[in-house]
Amino acid sequence: MIVVLGGLFVIADRVAVGFAEDEAADRLKTNEGLASKPDVSIKGFPFLTQVAGGELDEVEVGIKDYDADTSGTTGSVTGRAPSKIRIENLTAEMRGVAFSGDYSSAKASSATGTATVSYAELLKAAKAEPVDVASGVTAQVVGLSDGGNGKIKVKVEATVLGTKLPSPVSVLSSVSVKGDVVVVHADSLPNLGVQLAEDKARLITDFEQKIDGLPGGIKLDKVEAADKGVDIEVKGSNVSLVG
Fold first, then answer.
1. Same domain membership, residue 158 and residue 90
2. What would be one Pfam family of this protein (predicted)?
3. Which residue in 10, 50, 191, 240 has the most C-beta neighbors within 10 A?
């Protein structure tokens, strides 16, 4: 009999946690204006005991695509900055999730997570009309890719005295986070065959991308260039899961 009752409790517990995960996913989708329902996984067992205590040990949230705000983006490159930037595979682990009695709100004491910004998305922050960098010389960034060892390879296309260089010139750049801004800074200046003033060259090579309005108030923590884009680590405290 004890075994049977234990089995029934496990079944009831799993049914309850499944319902709670689905409800949380629906609320998160609505609150964040997501195009599709996120994945929500409530960790720990038993779930019902956690509910009775008013706090969940850990909740994992996965959002495939998230359009973050870029309002206030600044860059050394001229041109209009995008108002949104697509964040891929945003995953956050939220710990110590306290919730209200009617489940209308839930807040985590802390959260950590990862995400990726593709090079195509990041390029939008640098993409612009050609810029005059010297007498008779114009240039613009035409591509971003993995440069290895945590660096971004920035491809610069230039026209000198009316003649376009036969192929783009590449420079390796460091990427870092300052507050809610991703900063790309060239380690060296591009060799376009003419002498360039550093401030002029950096009008092309250096740029910034603000990433704001992430779910629940989580913030950028670290960034690193990777194979398909810039890998981001995020963190936060008193993070709202719903409500």
1. no
2. LmeA
3. 50
- 111 and 35 both lie in a single domain: yes
Q: What is the average pLDDT across 88-116?
A: 87
59: which 2 tokens?
A: 């909740």
Which amino acid, residue 235?
A: K
In terms of DSSP H, where are the helices of the chain? 2-32, 47-53, 119-126, 198-205
Please tell me whether residues 158 and 143 are part of one structural domain.
yes
Question: With helix as H, strand as E and coil as C, how does 190-234 read?
Answer: CCCCCCCCHHHHHHHHCEEEECECCHHHCEEEEEEECCCEEEEEE
- 85 and 5 fall within a common domain: yes
Domain membership of residue 91 as a residue range: 1-122
- Domain assignment present for residue 238? The answer is no
Question: Cα(198)–Cα(190) distance, rounded to whole angstroms?
Answer: 10
